[in-house]
Amino acid sequence: MANGQAEVVIVAAFVIIGVVVLLFAFLPNIIQDWNVPISEEQKAVRQSVENFLKQASTVSLREVSLNGGYYRPSSVASEQFNGRNVYYWLPSSKPEDIKTALRKAISDYIKENKGRLEAALAEKNVTIGDLDALDLELSDNALSVKASMPTKVKGFSIPQPYSAQIPTKVKDSFELAGRLADYQYNSRFFENSTIINTFSTNYVEGVKQVPLNVVWTKCDRPYSKSYPEMSFWMKDVMARTLKGTYMPGKAPENVAGISGLYKFLLPAFSNKKYAELDVDFFLPPDFSLDGSNFHFRTSDGTTDYIYLTATQLGKICKPDSTIVSYTFSYPIVATIRDPFTENRFSFALKAAIEDNQPSKRMDVGGGLSSQYDYCNNMACNGNVFVLDKDSGKGVENAYISFGGCYLGQTDKKGIFEGRIPCLLAGTLDVSSAGYEKSEAVTGATQLKGYSLRLKKLQMVKAYFHRVDVKNDSSAKTYTVKKAGYNQNPATLTLDWNWYGGNPYTIRTESPSGRINVPTGVYKISGTVASKDGKAIFGSFMQAGFEIKQDTSELHVYLPVFESPYDANDLTKVDKLLEMTAKRIGYSKVLQKCGMGPVSLTDVAKEFCTIKYEDV
Predict the structure, then answer these.
(1) 39, 87, 144, 221: least buried by Cβ within 10 Å?
(2) Which 3 state secondary structure label does DSSP give 562?
(3) Mean pLDDT for all residues in the chain
């Protein structure tokens, strides 16, 4: 028995010796993969990667918010607002899950920019593998992201995953957008509000500006209303309706007495008021009423024109009367402000009225029954050629719509060919990423071999520099000092007014940003204001600034005053804007200092003094 035990002990000893020998043989490789304490260099790399993940999450959060919960949508109907597409939330189409959109956006950002991160860490001998896993959690107040990307610093592994957290109310914004859309299409809230405002316009000579029941008693002259007149006032009604719509507890007191607007209050959804979210509704500035979205008729059958004449019978003036029926549709741009990120969750809704009642058919295509019918019964053929204005080459994947009906996209040669609605006249809309949108009124018979050219947009990187301006009245001088990139906790609004086309507006808090604008000559103006809009820190204007095809970056110098202007002091604000518009005041001061206010390169000068007499 003792001999047997001794043999077992000896065998065990040999096994242990063998394991130890193998261990030391492979020790260098094993040590590299052990979870040894992380070094300061590894900590620095980990911080860099997590900063990168936070940037990916921040950029993706902004993109998905501006797209109303969509990520890079292709065939979703949209409206133009402030130079961007705002996508529709309709009964037949709306995003289902914002986490999916965010996950795709963050994943793509990491894949597209990981090489840049590796290049920045090259000196530290860092290798970063592909994205293995990406987990997202959305709470009421934050977006939490965890990502696994195998990373080694000089051969040593960094523990996974990486994590980042962004304070945001995007979960509530997405939820509220869905509830607003459902409430609109189920209760027809905006239709009913618009009808109330339509028949509550001001009286002019005893008849409302948008009349329902007209009784004309003046025999000395007729009463007439043309289509352009009615279009103007109806568009005004739409804009007033949206401006007067508020979430619970958000409506200012006595708004009707101040502005003549009716207040329309949305309900609390499931007893949830979303008090931290600011919701605004807008009519797109380039929206117009035309034959595709607005008609009216009188009780005698006259269409799109009102004409009444009171008849003189001896001493009696016999009045003339009619009832007017309106049929129209219009887009609603809704924005929900995130109090943490200042992102605007933007989406579009549709309102449609038919014969003074909410339309029975609601979806893409204007909302009018006639438009619904011809968009679903395309009996004509058409082919459209879309070319690059500069190169003459075909533009691939350009979106084609005619008369409010989406038709499809162009092929690799820039050609769309297919069925179109048989309209005598309608608006042909053509848009493509990186190009300025084209709109033209034409007919179905002309859309056979129809050719048009799109002007390419120039992508420009803009840097916003803060410049402190001190007004010394005793010495009669202005002292100008560059103070680095704009870090003021305020919102910068830039208006790029192209002399040859539409204005572009940018609102940013970042020290830099990208803009997509057509080449051409611009009048550029800017205002720096506090987030709540109560204080104005500075403003400028520069006219005659040309953006060329080779323009890749701009430097904007923001004059910041010693004492901000009170935005409620309209006299001072008007004076400031008047001086800015005349390109005098601080715009002139910056120009005299050689600081633009807008230039193609960064100005080396850091400091200068200008006399009053030079300005």
Answers:
(1) 221
(2) coil
(3) 80
* pLDDT surpassing 70 at residue 313: no
Report which of 525, 453, 448 is spatially closest to residue 493, judged by C-alpha positions: 525
Q: Is the dihedral of CA 208, 210, 211, 216 positive or negative?
A: positive
Report angle CA 9, 12, 16 to the nearest 5 degrees.
135
Quote the pLDDT of residue 31.
38
DSSP code at position 261: P
Give percent above pLDDT 70 in the chain: 79
- Work out the pLDDT band at 276, boundaries 50, 70, 90: very high
Distance, CA of 209 to CA of 213 (rounded, Å): 11
Amino acid letter, residue 528? V
DSSP 377-431: ---EEEEEEEEETTT--B-TT-EEEETTEEEEE--TTSEEEEEE---SSEEEEEE
Closest CA to 539 of 563, 557, 513: 557
Residue 16, both tokens: 């242990």
Q: Which residues contact 472 (CB under 8 A, 6 or more apart)?
A: 478, 479
Answer for the pair 407, 392: CB distance below 8 angstroms, yes or no.
no
Q: For the residues 414-438, what does the mean pLDDT come to?
A: 81
**SS3 for 195?**
helix
Tokens standing for residue 84: 């961007």
Nearest C-alpha neighbor of 56 from the set 183, 147, 150, 123: 147
Instruction: Copy the structure tokens of residue 443.
Output: 């007919």
- The whole-number pLDDT of residue 25 equals 41
The per-residue pLDDT for range 359-418, each reduced to its tens digit, is 876 544 433 444 445 555 678 899 999 999 888 999 998 878 787 676 778 999 999 999
pLDDT digits (tens, 9 = 90+) for 486-531: 554 455 556 666 555 555 555 555 556 666 677 777 777 777 777 6
Contact of 230 with 324, CB cutoff 8 Å: no
Across the range 47-64, mean pLDDT stands at 94
Question: Which tokens go with 2?
Answer: 């003792």
Closest CA to 366 of 420, 289, 313, 430: 289
3-state secondary structure of 240: helix
Cβ pair 544, 524 in contact under 8 A: no
Say whether pLDDT at 290 is over 60: yes
Task: Assign 215 to helix, strand or coil.
Answer: strand
CA distances from 11 to 8, 25, 272, 505 (A): 5, 21, 74, 83
Residue 29 confidence (pLDDT): 39
Strands 78-81 and 607-611: unpaired
Q: Of 97-111, 321-335, 393-407, where does mean pLDDT reach its minimum?
A: 393-407
State how far the Cα of 359 lies from the Cα of 366, in Å rounded to an integer. 10
H or E element at residue 12 = helix 2-25
Can you say whether the dihedral through the CA atoms of 508, 344, 499, 469 is positive or negative? negative
Distance CA 81, CA 522 (A): 20
On whether the CB atoms of residues 526 and 519 are closer than 8 A, the answer is no
What contacts 153, CB < 8 A, 6 or more positions away? 39, 41, 42, 45, 124, 125, 126
- Yes or no: say if 508 and 485 are a contact pair by the CB < 8 Å rule: no
Give 278's strand partners: 337
Q: Please state, in angstroms and as integers, the Cα–Cα distance from residue 216 to each residue in 40, 203, 223, 297, 321, following that order.
A: 87, 13, 7, 17, 6
Dist CA 153 CA 434 (whole Å): 40
Q: What whole-number distance in Å separates Cα of residue 369 and Cα of residue 13? A: 91
Phi, psi of 4, rounded to the nearest 5 degrees: -60, -45
Mean pLDDT, rounded, for 443-463: 84
Count of CB atoms situated within 10 Å of the CB of 75 = 10
In angstroms, the CA 274 to CA 534 distance is 23
